[in-house]
Amino acid sequence: MISVVIPSYNRRDCVLALLADVYAQEGADFEVIVVDDRSPDDSVEAIRREYPQVTLLVNEKNGGPAVTRNRGIRAAKGDIIVGLDSDVTVPDRHVLANVEKRFRAHPTVTGLAFRLYKPDGKSEDTPRWWHPVPIGQYADKSFLTSYFSGTAYAFRREELIEAGMYPEILYMHYEEVELAFRILDKGGSILHCPELSVLHHANEVSRRSEVSVFYKPRNQVLVAVACLPGFKALQYAIPRMVFQFITACRRGHVKDFMRAMKSASQLIPRRLEKREPLRSETMKRIGALKHGLAP
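Structure tokens predicted for Glycosyltransferase:
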């Protein structure tokens, strides 16, 4: 069975539209879990009223996407997790059935990365393309990757849990990057599947600017500290911090950048306590994936 896990925060109309699409799915046995992250709107009441069959969980306090997704994964009964952010729609009524087909066709694959379109259903959602290959050449191809977007994905639940799920210390942004690293380090693999697609309406939350000026530089440091071996951590973090600082200077966000670095320095001791550098074999695999390996 598939467990569809939907994190929701202050997006009542969006999550209701997504639920309509999910319940229109054909050819698959599934349950739906919505985890509300203490929305200030009436999302919870609307979901209870219009979709009483949904398993609805409400966080006691706002915990962020990583916490919210993890809670849904833990509550899931299915052996496959399909994660969908609340600002997507799913026009294809056979997406869930096709997820099952893909996992059957690739029994050693851990996860499936969906193709993300803009609302017009034709344009690629370029800002969410973090795969290690060019979007123009690979968006319509199946390939093994070191990344997936939390916007839309599918994983075998047990392997997702074994990899540690989303790192909750990051709160939001880069949590998928670290989880992908952990999955690969456990010997798993992630397959980009262009036939598994959603429309991403990018209903930006009010904290979106906070992502670019605070969470992004902070979490880049924290991921490097927790995941990357010695010199690789420096190679990863230093150029990014230089770029983020220059960008902050140009855009007048130096105070935000310094706030991000202060927060990172406060969290580094906690990251070091649980630091697990990726194996050398994993680093080689990540490098090889930049060449667009076929499944």
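Residues 213 and 256 are 6 Å apart (CA to CA).
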